[in-house]
Design goal:
By secondary structure, the protein is an all-alpha fold. It is about 85% helix and about 0% strand. It contains 16 helices and no strands. Helix 3 packs antiparallel against helix 10, helix 5 packs antiparallel against helix 9 and helix 11 packs parallel to helix 13.
Length: about 450
């Protein structure tokens, strides 16, 4: 068992540090923009939800690539693993280009859909119209990171994430306050940091591909196969992102308190929740890579051992995260805003989020195991079931007294609870244990 723990930690620790660094793009933006004013912070909140949805829908570029590359690695075919990864990067370029153009054109309509006040909407449009230029670099980063994780390398993405975030913070401070560009400067700084980070990661993959004589030119058949395999993960991610969008929409419909304060509070809370989700997802990243490699080599027994051990790590890390969030809750608000009303409302919301962290640890680990196994079809159906349960619960919660807190209770109990039940049931069965270099489902 110690050997299994070492194997998990070898991938999970660098992945943890990198995943914590990734949401710092938004955390640093929130901290810097939040001190411009509450309308600016609320505008960033709307923009962040849209951006996270667009990029989140494309997370299959990392997840699917990690699993497929790891399977080929487990089967002993490194050249095929790298070829699969290069196809994933080309798919990211294609999708990113379409998303950038479509996002910029749709920005006014996307912001208007949230029904916020004119000042908040103006700030959201300003941020989004610039930030969409970073979509393609972000998707390339996802795909290239997936390749490296599939190759069992989580250290390089960590280094890129740390340097990229340090650059993002420096650029944001200079552009927002040094050049007095306001919220536009924050978006511009993030885009520049994302472009440089993407170039770095692609350079690493290209060098590896050349070293093992893997093709670098776009392969239509490979890109098409990667896109086809990603459909189920897109549905899964769309359903889960829809849950988060419904939660934000429900917050805008809370009948008590100021709408701007509610949205700003929710933005800080969801940013912190996402930060912890990325941190807890470190074991899930290890699960994707190790499960794919184990099944690629045909070792079902080792896959089971890995799963059991990673579930324990998931519970433990979730408990630690929950305790840390609960202890820090009274002081975290001051990092993001000077608005006393936002800071007061934030504490009970964060305490609810803290209670749900152990369950979140379990959910993320099992999600990673099934992604690594290529069990996308089940994950898609499970995501739709969770959305069907959570959407009415969140909208009803918004009508209750203390509606903002009630929405977060619904998120913890219904959204995460339903995922926990479905994923645990699936993991106990054998249908996901398909061996070999490729999965046909």
């Amino acid at each position: 068992m110690k050997a299994v723990d070492r194997e998990i930690l070898r991938l999970a620790v660098p992945a943890f540090l990198a995943l914590v660094a990734e949401p710092l793009f938004l955390l640093s933006d929130a901290a810097i923009v939040g001190h411009l004013g509450t309308p600016e912070l609320a505008g960033l909140g709307i923009a962040a939800v849209v951006l996270q949805t667009v990029v989140g829908l494309c997370v299959f570029l990392a997840y699917g690539t990690t699993a497929s590359v790891a399977r080929h690695l487990g089967a002993g075919d490194l050249r095929a693993a790298l070829a699969q990864g290069v196809d994933g990067i080309w798919l990211a370029v294609l999708i990113g280009t379409l998303a950038t153009v479509g996002g910029i054109v749709a920005t006014p309509a996307l912001v208007a859909a949230f029904g916020t006040g004119p000042e908040v909407a103006d700030h959201a449009r300003t941020y989004l119209s610039i930030a969409f230029l970073g979509t393609t670099p972000l998707l390339i980063m996802l795909a290239a990171t997936g390749v490296l994780r599939g190759l069992q390398d989580t250290r390089t993405p960590l280094l890129v994430a740390v340097v990229g975030n340090a650059l993002n913070i420096a650029l944001n401070l200079f552009l927002v306050y040094g050049l007095d560009l306001g919220i536009a400067g924050s978006a511009l700084g993030s885009v520049v940091a994302q472009v440089l980070s993407a170039a770095w990661l692609v350079g690493v993959v290209v060098r590896a591909a050349r070293a093992h004589d893997a093709p670098l030119s776009p392969d239509r058949a490979g890109i098409t196969a990667a896109a086809h395999a990603a459909v189920a993960l897109v549905v899964r991610t769309l359903a889960l992102r829809a849950c988060l969008l419904v939660g934000t929409y429900a917050v805008t419909r809370v009948g008590t308190g100021s709408s701007d304060v509610n949205v700003a509070t929710h933005q800080v809370a969801i940013t912190l929740w996402s930060f912890l989700a990325f941190a807890l997802d470190a074991i899930a990243i290890a699960a994707q890579a190790l499960t794919g490699r184990a099944l690629g080599s045909g070792d079902v027994a080792h896959t089971r051992r890995l799963t059991r051990r990673m579930v324990r790590w998931g519970w433990g890390s979730g408990i630690v995260a929950g305790l840390a969030l609960a202890v820090a809750a009274p002081w975290l608000g001051a990092l993001f805003t000077d608005d006393a009303a936002v800071r007061a409302q934030l504490v009970p919301v964060l305490l609810v989020a803290a209670l749900g962290q152990p369950l979140a640890g379990l959910v993320f680990v099992l999600d990673g195991v099934l992604i690594g196994a290529g069990d996308g079809r089940f994950l898609a159906w499970a995501g739709l079931v969770v959305l069907a349960a959570y959407a009415p619960a969140a909208l009803w919660a918004a009508t209750l007294p203390h509606g903002l807190v009630a929405v977060w209770v619904a998120m913890t109990v219904v959204f995460m609870g339903a995922r926990g039940v479905l994923l645990s049931w699936r993991a106990r069965g054998d249908h996901w244990l398909v061996t070999g270099a490729a999965v046909h489902r």
